[in-house]
Design a protein that fits this description.
The strands form two sheets. A seven-stranded parallel beta sheet has the order 4-3-2-1-5-6-7, with helices on both faces. The protein has a four-stranded mixed beta sheet with strand order 9-8-10-11, covered by helices on one side. It is α/β, with parallel strands linked by helices. Among the domains are: about 5-140, NAD(P)-binding Rossmann-like Domain (Rossmann fold, 3-Layer(aba) Sandwich), CATH 3.40.50.720; about 145-175 and about 210-295, no CATH class. Helix 6 runs parallel beside helix 10 and helix 13 (about 300-315) runs antiparallel to helix 14 (about 315-335). The chain contains 16 helices and eleven strands. The chain is globular and about 55 Å long. Helices cover about 45% and strands about 15% of the residues. The protein has helices at about 10-25, 35-45, 60-65, 75-85, 105-110, 120-140, 145-155, 190, 200-210, 210-225, 265-270, 285-290, 300-315, 315-335, 340-350, 360-379, and strands at about 5, 25-35, 50-55, 75, 90-95, 115-120, 140-145, 165-170, 230-235, 240-250, 255. The structure holds magnesium ion. The site of magnesium ion has 4 residues, from helix 7. Magnesium ion binds near residues 146, 147, 148 and 217.
């Protein structure tokens, strides 16, 4: 029986991970969520994990009440997340946390030699070099959960030793594809949260509307697959059927297709190298009829440009752009800044900061704090 722990168990990826766990009779040894006490407690009662963690310390007593009479050990905050990441005898830790709080638990799991199913983009965006090097030293596997990276990972199977010449990272284009900056001036929160193909959490849905999400995925792909930024091409594909593709030395391109449903990549990360039955709709290409592919609009979507510039510049720049975006998205959702301001701040941060290299977790945290302060002062 596979043993897993799930960080971010009440979010969209987390609940679908537990669907897979339920369908395949996995042993869930730990659960963690940030705020959703009620759902977390229900999950704990169903799966009987040894450890349950609540991120928000103010919710701790509520969780204790909700789990009264169970034998779960209840922990909280970053210490709690890292306690889960340090557990022995876990086959895979699923990291589905949102934001760069996911980085330290990832590093801790790698130190603990636990394989990771990674849905937390910010882990590789902010600490890519550190994480990848550490994983290699400890012989820890990182299985991508993001649909695009899972697609690339799937395309690479059976191609050991064959050099990737390029990857084609597909993007849905989000709800504002084809719009100009002038048309996006007065975008409301509801409009930005209305994604055409994928149903996801709030933060990632806004990131999809600004194309920040694709920028983060660009950086993630660079680290996961050991590529130079020049080897990654972003292509807008509105139907989200081709989840990404790999071009090899002979110019043959292999793509992975499916209906847009995160359950496939989540399950593959957990069952790799096996493919098990999965409760998702079958893909019917004739139902779609046409699949379209277009160039992304780097002029309108500042966040996308900021991410690509940041990874080309290297060092702490990707971390800075990510932290600026996290702050800016929170402010947009709070109705404190406009939609376009998110991208403006991301680009402005690249000019504001000078290059610093990343050799430790502390370097990343220092850059993060400075970036958040920059947003507080300039937004
Ligand atoms: Mg994705």
């Amino acid at each position: 029986m596979k043993k897993i722990s799930v960080l971010g168990s009440t979010g969209s990826i987390g609940t679908q991970t537990l669907d897979v766990a339920r369908a395949n009779n996995y042993c869930v040894r730990a659960l963690a969520a940030n705020n959703s006490v009620e759902l977390l407690a229900n999950q704990a009662r169903e799966f009987s994990p040894e450890i349950v963690c609540i991120g928000n310390k103010n919710m701790l007593s509520k969780l204790k009440d909700a789990l009264n009479g169970t034998s779960c050990k209840i922990v909280c905050g970053m210490d709690g997340l890292c306690e889960i990441a340090s557990m022995c005898d876990v086959d895979i830790m699923v990291n589905a946390l949102v934001g760069m709080i996911g980085l330290l638990p990832t590093l801790t799991a790698i130190d603990n030699k636990t394989d990771i199913a990674l849905a937390n983009k910010e882990t590789l965006v902010t600490g890519g070099e550190l994480v990848i090097n550490k994983a290699r030293e400890n012989n820890v596997k990182i299985y991508p959960v993001d649909s695009e990276h899972s697609a690339i990972f799937q395309c690479l199977q059976g191609n050991d030793g064959n050099k990737i010449s390029k990857i084609i990272l597909t993007a849905s284009g989000g709800p504002f594809f084809g719009k100009t900056k002038a048309e996006l001036k007065n975008v409301t929160i509801a409009q930005a949260l209305n994604h055409p193909n994928w149903s996801m959490g709030k933060k990632i849905t806004i990131d999809s509307a600004t194309l920040m999400n694709k920028g983060l995925e660009f950086i993630e792909a660079k680290w996961l697959f050991g590529l130079d930024p020049s080897q990654i091409e972003i292509v807008v594909h509105r139907q989200s059927v081709v989840h990404s593709a790999v071009e090899f030395a002979d110019n043959s391109v292999i793509a992975q297709l499916g209906v847009p449903d995160m359950k496939i990549p989540i399950q593959y990360a957990l069952t790799y190298p096996n493919r098990l039955k999965c409760d998702v709709k079958k893909l019917s290409l004739t139902d779609y009829g046409n699949l379209t592919f277009e160039k992304p609009d780097f002029e309108t979507f500042d966040c996308l440009r900021a991410c690509i510039d940041a990874i080309k510049l290297g060092g702490t720049y990707p971390c800075i752009v990510n932290a600026v975006n996290e702050e800016a998205v929170a402010m947009f959702l709070d109705e404190k800044i406009s939609f376009l301001r998110i991208g403006e701040l991301s680009l402005a941060a690249l000019k504001e900061f000078t290059k610093c290299s990343v050799s430790s977790y502390e370097d990343i945290i220092k850059a993060e704090k400075e970036a958040r302060r920059f947003v507080a002062e300039t937004a």
